[in-house]
Write a structure and sequence with these properties.
Length: 210
């Protein structure tokens, strides 16, 4: 039975529509950095191909002669994104999306070492030689204490949910703790190509400090 983090760690992947506070532990991710409007950027689409390609290469390593030590089968987790802008500030309602700076990422199991990651890159290069995974990196990422909420609806309708989350943070006695490493964070639980905009589920997460 493949491990599904969305089911085994519900606090991380199934928050309510009312904001809550959570301690986010260190996890291993494959990440790709980029810049520009995700709706039109070829770099963004390429990054997603690389991320999913590498995640599935790790998953299917069970069928190779070099199965990683400690391997277990897993459901590939949802796509995530860390967001900022050219000015360093990510505010709700931004219309000039060409200014976005993003780190797109997918969680990987803890058995993925640098060696396992490099093997996944080699495997992906053999299957898709035209796909450049040079910019992909493996990183242990710990967010620490955060506030999060489930947003249901289109991405463009997020501002109202973000404002409610910020009010919750202030009312709870915390403040935002945004920096180069702690950024506006979104987790995408649906495929927008297959899901009606009004039914999209997006977790919005902000790092906070007392």
């Amino acid at each position: 039975m493949a491990i599904d983090f969305k089911k085994t760690q519900k606090a991380l992947y199934q928050p309510g529509i009312k904001p809550s506070i959570i301690e986010v532990p260190e996890m291993v991710f494959v990440m790709v950095d980029g810049h520009g409007d995700p709706n039109t950027s070829e770099a963004y689409q390429s990054a997603l191909e690389v991320l999913y390609g590498l995640a599935y290469a790790v998953k299917m390593s069970k069928n190779t002669d070099n199965q990683p030590e400690g391997y277990y089968d897993f459901v590939v987790p949802p796509l995530e994104g860390l967001w900022s802008t050219d000015t360093g500030v990510f505010e709700s309602g931004i219309t000039e999306k060409s200014e976005f700076r993003w780190t797109s990422m997918i969680r990987l199991p803890e058995f993925v070492t640098p060696e396992v990651f490099e093997a996944a890159k080699i495997s992906l290069a053999k299957k898709k030689p035209n796909l450049d995974s040079f910019g992909a990196r493996l990183e242990a990422f710990r967010e620490g204490i955060c506030a999060q909420v489930m947003h249901i609806g289109s991405y463009d309708s997020e501002p109202a949910t973000i404002l409610a989350l910020k009010k919750f943070i202030a009312d709870a006695g915390y403040r935002l703790d945004l920096s180069d490493t702690r950024r506006h964070h979104e987790l995408y639980l649906n495929d927008p190509r297959k899901t009606s905009p009004d039914k999209l589920k997006t977790i919005i997460r902000y790092p906070i400090v007392e």
